[in-house]
Amino acid sequence: MYGASDPAAADRTAFRRAEKQYKLYKPPNLKGRSRSRSKPDGVEGGCGDLSAVVDFHALLAADGELPAGIGRSNCAGFDHPVFCFLDRPGFYFIPGALSTEEQCYWIRESLKTFPQPPNRTNLTAIYGSISDLFVAAKNRKILVEVENSDVQEKEQNNGDGKTESKYSKFVEDSEIQKGEGCRSTRATTLMRKLRWSTLGLQFDWSKRNYDVSLPHKRIPDALANLAKNMAIPAMPFGEEFKPEAAIVNYYGPSDMLGGHVDDMEADWTKPIVSISLGCKCIFLLGGKTRDEVPTAMFLRSGDIVLMAGEARERFHGVPRIFTESDQQEISALVSQLSGEDDCFILDYIKNSRININIRQVY
Ligand code: OGA
Ligand code: MN
């Protein structure tokens, strides 16, 4: 993903220092987390400080005067509260934009449908096209890599003149021929290795650009309609947002998204509509260079962020996700998902965050 991993560069800029500070944050007073013997039993000091992190849910619940620099954006016909930063035009925060049912729906889609071909994922380059990964993981199947044949080559042609050189299929554990020498990986392991999938126009991460020659389907109508409705506060009156591509990010417990600017879309006046699902995280909104001190805020499941105009030029990233059970803030999701047969989804989301960000490319 984005962001330098050069440790020497780790704290050269204000943005990197903030990333490091929050990445290393440890909650205080948690028994059994640290093996430090220097502290009295049960009193762990924690590490770091979240007091500067803006909490829009708390501001909404308090329903009082807002801290300096934060405002409410009034948008005719838009029936969700919207917050903004007075000195950061083009950034909008819609706390609790999605109901628990809607969150469950989009989590399910993100795991079952969005990684399906022709959509590409981070696994495509390694294993070739993988169908029905979610079902395979649920059924404890195993992916085996097969030598490419002419037929498979045809099926695997990306349309960009290159072919996927690999072809993989799911088999039962018992079907694996011992000593055959083909590489095999559990579907559950692959599910945990899923980092991103791309919907609509396919984003090519190696070139950091859209590759229009890659086969793709339109963004699902329900997601396009949601994005159009949620984009309203950031759109000029009467204009409609046109969702053409989406990137779905899957974060495990220690994953982060380094500071970056999304600059591959033609018209920066149009917003990026960014949906948060699953575990709470810290989102950093910085300036046009990494030298500006970023503002940190909590993003929780169901929150939506819009970045348009000037805000699109700002560095942003996710240095920390909270998978600790007393920090993740997904109790509504957990009770909703517990009633269903999908314990796989429940287990997944307890340790993960999913971000769907929807873009107008042209
Ligand atoms: C991105 C992005 C933010 C998030 O994918 O470009 O900025 O909340 N995601 O995960
Ligand atoms: Mn981004």
Defining traits:
binds N-oxalylglycine, 22% helix, AlkB-like, alpha+beta, dioxygenase, 6-stranded antiparallel β-sheet, 21% strand, Alkb, iron, oxidoreductase, binds manganese (II) ion, 4-stranded antiparallel β-sheet, globular
Task: Say which molecules are bound, naming each kind only once.
Answer: N-oxalylglycine, manganese (II) ion
Put simply, the count of helices is 10
Distance between the termini: 23 Å
Instruction: Find the count of extended strands (DSSP E, 2+ residues).
Output: 17
- Determine the strand fraction and express it as a percent band: 15-25%
Report the biggest beta sheet as strand number plus sense, adding barrel if it closes: 6 strands, antiparallel
Q: Round the Cα radius of gyration to an integer and report it.
A: 22 Å
Q: How are the strands of the biggest sheet laid out side by side?
A: 3-15-12-17-10-7
The gross shape turns out to be: globular
Q: Which regions contain 5 or more consecutive residues with pLDDT less than 50?
A: 34-43, 150-163
Give the helices and strands as they follow along the chain: HHEEEHHHEHEEHEEEHEEEEEEEHHE
Give the class from helix and strand content and strand pairing. alpha+beta
Average pLDDT confidence is 88
Q: Give the helix level as a range of percent.
A: 10-25%
